[in-house]
Amino acid sequence: MAAGSGGMSWPRPRRLLLALMVANVVAYVAELILIRANLGVVEALMLTPADVFEAGRIWQPFTYLWLHDPEQPTHLLFNMLWLYLFGSQLEPWWGERRFLTGYLLFGLGGGVLTLLVALLSRVSPFDALLGSFWIRPHLGASGAVMGVLIGWGMAFSKKEMNFFLLGRMTGRTFVAVVVAVELLMALSLSSVSSTSHFGGMITAFIVCGGWWKPARWSTAFRRRRLLKEKARLEAELSTLHTDPRGGPPPNTDASPGSKPGPRPDGGGGPGRWPNNEDGGASGSGSRGGHNDWN
């Protein structure tokens, strides 16, 4: 896959991408050993909706993406090939931290959508359509890899590339082709976990399309909390500034011609609370001064 020219380029993977690929290979080797040892560990790590909801194995939506089909090593091979081809261009653009966060989020999104579809399989008429989906195991990094592919297509949407036998097309067009192929696979009788694929792709659309804004949500939450605190403090101040008997506030001489009395802090001047009902203003050093909440 090359940009600009008709040839093919194989960029060198960066540190994080290489670490992810090595981790997947090591996990696959460990998976094969554990299966031969017949310890039941792999079954506890792959994503089976019934295990999550009935046995409380809540870690499975994350651990499943580190496993691959033990009978088909090509499952791992093609996932790593796609991850390398698109991740090698996307990681320098996103940076290591964002790329790793995206990879894990896309994989988790694939697991979450799988669980949601599994819940539908328990309800009529979806139970007839989905069959044994509730007890079917899911495994593979395909959800995370498909999310990386969508992220690449959105980052380089107008960049024209040479896609092997598919010819030259923009990133946006290639993403549309991939989505169409995934829809056909979902309708077919293939054993591929289309829910994890679509979960990763949908998560990528949300994250890369600008709809995922946790920082803005956190700021809005803190602002609402501060506004509630401001209202509470203002209510407390209003009760302090009002005499319960209905008269003037304490330490205030209400007679028009009276001389100024001592200040509560020992200084001269009128003895009044800051921001009281008759419009008196306090100095900037008064203890009861009003705070502006920005």
Care to describe what's here?
The structure is a single chain. This protein has helices at 15-37, 41-45, 49-55, 60-63, 73-94, 96-120, 126-130, 142-155, 171-187, 194-208, 214-240, and strands at residues 2-3, 160-162, 168-170. It has 294 residues and is an all-alpha fold. The chain has a domain at 17-210: Rhomboid-like fold (Up-down Bundle), CATH 1.20.1540.10. A 3-stranded antiparallel beta sheet has the order 1-2-3. α6 crosses α8 and α6 (96-120) packs across α10. The protein starts with a strand and ends in a 54-residue tail after the last helix. The relative contact order is 0.10. Residues 2-8 and 263-294 have low confidence and may be disordered.
Fold topology:
Blueprint lengths: L1 E2 L11 H23 L3 H5 L3 H7 L4 H4 L9 H22 L1 H25 L5 H5 L11 H14 L4 E3 L5 E3 H17 L6 H15 L5 H27 L54
Antiparallel strand pairs: 1-2, 2-3
Helix pairs in contact: 1-5, 5-6, 5-8, 6-8, 6-10, 8-9, 8-10, 9-10
